[in-house]
């Protein structure tokens, strides 16, 4: 625990979006934990979905000499410049929630779920509820996110085991409620049979 550490610890945190509901909960939990630890402070930055802005934030953290960086990447395939910045500065880097699609060097880690397994579990539960038949629409997150691609792959792999289940359409809502409402409204208004 931080209470046994002698010095104050400064952590730079760059989040892909502040207005993503899940990421807001994640950010608030981190802030609460840092405050409870007493000698840990965080500088939280919103990349606003812009990878160039996120790289700039990491550069700023490095120049400020933070003790560690927590990164929720905008693009899980575009993390190499940020890894290099942290690695060159010898600052530990932890990716959270969105798994980078590159090998991580020593001193770096990923904390999050197995997205493909999550997709498989979702579809297994859905297939059971649907008694193995019906039309499915897939609402996806951001296409630049490993979680979106892997979760969708997991869903599709399980659905392929059920000849009575047909994936009729899949569209992105980029992890935003308003866009999800728009996409699902369009599906409903299209008149297609939707079972799930």
From TrEMBL:
It is found in: Cell envelope. The keyword Signal applies. InterPro entries: Peripla_BP_I, SBP_2_dom. Its main location: other. One of its GO terms (molecular function) is carbohydrate binding. Keywords: Signal. SUPFAM superfamilies: Periplasmic binding protein-like I. One of its GO terms (biological process) is transmembrane transport. The keyword Signal applies. Residues 11-195 form the Periplasmic binding protein domain. One of its GO terms (cellular component) is cell envelope. Belongs to the bacterial solute-binding protein 2 family. This is Sugar ABC transporter substrate-binding protein.
